[in-house]
């Protein structure tokens, strides 16, 4: 057994954060994804998600944006946040807000399952 959150729970939290970034509720996000899936199926196509590398680039972009905002917040908190009456400190965001590389998870799961099948076939 591995310690930590269940995969389904982590993916659900990730979907909620992604919906929020797009200015949607989780239900609106699910409905939009369902609509896009149905549209693709109706034209005989299959929706394909990003590759591991594409997802990693997206995460790196979001991390750069997070770091920039954190720098702005830190400068504000260190300078203006102290002097302006009624000013409230700005929050510093942790890396925990970044999305999970779901493509990497799928690749890892397939690799692990393949290893298990190969190991079991030797028995």
Keywords:
123 residues; mainly alpha
Textual characterization of the structure:
This protein has helices at 7-21, 26-42, 52-78, 80-83, 102-122. The model has no long low-confidence stretch (mean pLDDT 89). The longest helix has 27 residues, at 52-78. The protein has 5 helices and no strands. By secondary structure, it is an all-alpha fold. 68% of the residues lie in helices and 0% in strands.
- Measured distance between first and last alpha carbons: 22 Å
Mean pLDDT: 89
**Radius of gyration in whole Å, from Cα?**
20 Å
Please state the overall shape, judged from the principal axes of the Cα atoms. Answer: extended
Uncertain runs: none
E-strand count: 0
Please provide the ordered H/E string of secondary-structure elements: HHHHH
Report the major sheet: none
Subunit arrangement of the protein: single chain
Q: Given the helix and strand composition, which structural class is it? A: mainly alpha
Please outline what is shown here.
The protein is built from five helices and no strands. With 123 residues, the chain is mainly α. The longest helix is centred in the middle third of the chain and has 27 residues, at 52-78.
Question: Which helices and strands, and how do they pair?
Answer:
Elements: H1 7-21, H2 26-42, H3 52-78, H4 80-83, H5 102-122
């Amino acid at each position: 057994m591995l310690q930590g959150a269940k995969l389904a729970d982590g993916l659900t939290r990730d979907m909620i954060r992604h919906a929020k970034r797009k200015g949607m509720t989780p239900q609106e996000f699910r409905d939009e994804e369902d609509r896009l899936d149905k549209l693709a199926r109706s034209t005989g196509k299959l929706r394909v998600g990003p590759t591991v590398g594409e997802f990693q680039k997206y995460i790196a972009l979001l991390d750069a944006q997070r770091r920039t905002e954190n720098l702005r917040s830190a400068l504000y908190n260190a300078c203006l946040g102290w002097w302006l009456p009624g000013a409230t400190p700005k929050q510093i965001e942790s890396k925990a807000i970044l999305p999970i590389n779901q493509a990497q998870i799928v690749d890892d799961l397939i690799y692990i399952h393949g290893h298990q099948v190969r190991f079991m076939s030797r028995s």
